[in-house]
Fold:
Amino acid sequence: MSAPDSSPAFKPLYQQIKILITQSLISGEWRPGEAIPSEIELANRYNVSQGTVRKAINELADENLLIRHQGKGTFVASHTEERRKFHFMRIAPDQGRQVYPDGELLACRRGKADSVMARLLEINTGATLVVVTRVMKVEGRPLAWEEVRLPAALFKGLNASRINEFSCRLYSMFESAYGVRILQVAEQIKAVPAPAEAAQVLGVPEHSPLLNIDRLAYTFGDKPVEWRRTLCDTREFHYMNKIV
Amino acid sequence: MSAPDSSPAFKPLYQQIKILITQSLISGEWRPGEAIPSEIELANRYNVSQGTVRKAINELADENLLIRHQGKGTFVASHTEERRKFHFMRIAPDQGRQVYPDGELLACRRGKADSVMARLLEINTGATLVVVTRVMKVEGRPLAWEEVRLPAALFKGLNASRINEFSCRLYSMFESAYGVRILQVAEQIKAVPAPAEAAQVLGVPEHSPLLNIDRLAYTFGDKPVEWRRTLCDTREFHYMNKIV
DNA sequence: GAGTGGTCTAGACCACTCA
DNA sequence: GAGTGGTCTAGACCACTCA
Structure:
């Protein structure tokens, strides 16, 4: 490849390399959990300097697509890793250590996307959705009620038993069973009065305050692939966020 | 300076440069809004290569302490800039464009830190606090009730008229009037029943759901300098968060 | 000891800003 | 045109991992 020029759509070399690496991630040439080739190998492959490859890899590592380990290599991020478990999970107990709640499936059924859901998931109105409802529990006590909506076209054959196989670790299942990797999520958070169903499941009075977290989850190319609503009893838990 | 060695407490050169630059930021050698010296000048000053200075500056820019502008220079971040206004402000309307609420001061009084507040703010129990309460409004309609607690030792002479001078832009005032720069915040979010005072101010029924945001704000060296509780009416607004 | 990523340097050239 | 940060290269050496 050549040095940058002054063409109208100038794009630095390292950004072009980033795109090439991302394509190999999408195509599955390098799979979650595996090592990608070393910087030197990639530099030869793309015919650029090691420094340029390094800059591309560093940005992908900043975006949590790759994980670098000095002395070992660079690895494709995977939701099955322990360290990813809490990445998109921001609910923590007020007292004591962070715990990962257990999921208990309530239902897995089919539905149709209304116009709002269609716009959010960038699918057609009326397209088939997989709708999963579940309760999240900590030490047997219900913490949150959750409804997850997925475009059925992306998750063919998804059913209750498959969810239970992965013990409700949905993003891990998306990755392993459907090759769908969740890379980022956008959340909108409100305080709402508990609706009847959630109140009953959580064992709180109807209309008592619950934390409502609406999430859109995205895969490569900022493509939305999951919508979910979490209704969380925050009397002894909280949602945590750091802003730098 | 010399190349890295294998001493027990090995610290890369660029991290040492980061510390030196940070010290100049703390000391006020370079003030908010001003440009710092160019990379070449700093490389000469610290007797390292431009690449090493660059790496230090890039990390400080990633942490939002500095702002780089190609062709112009590198500037010290300031809360008085328009672009910082929404940085720590995560409440947005469900419909329409992001707006910045107006603050309306309710009270500015003195209090004493109880043991919980003392632990959070890393001060002594019984130390004097400045306690500010206010309402945030959008187009005249109350959106949130807020209580802010500050160590009085850091904010000498703070009173209602000074807050009003800065039209309730607290972080801008901290920076300009007290040299206290807020660099990061940690928030814990819950859904709570509206307490009497907030319910009255916000014009919502007592015990109706409000979003409760407890925030600790930190300056250099991860030193906490502000605690605040925001009680927000989220019927037409939400708290937004992106996780990558 | 071989292989990986991490740091550091020196130097070239580019894109952008401003006078 | 001078000055800034941004990209890219080639090469040296270091810290870390694993056999």
The interface with chain B takes residues 63-64, 87-88, 90, 94, 183-193, 208-212, 214, 232, 234-235, 237-244 of chain A (CB under 8 Å). The radius of gyration of chain A is 21 Å. The longest helix of chain A spans residues 13-27. Residues 3-6, 10, 35, 38-40, 54, 57, 68-74 of chain A lie near DNA strand C (CB under 10 Å from a C1').
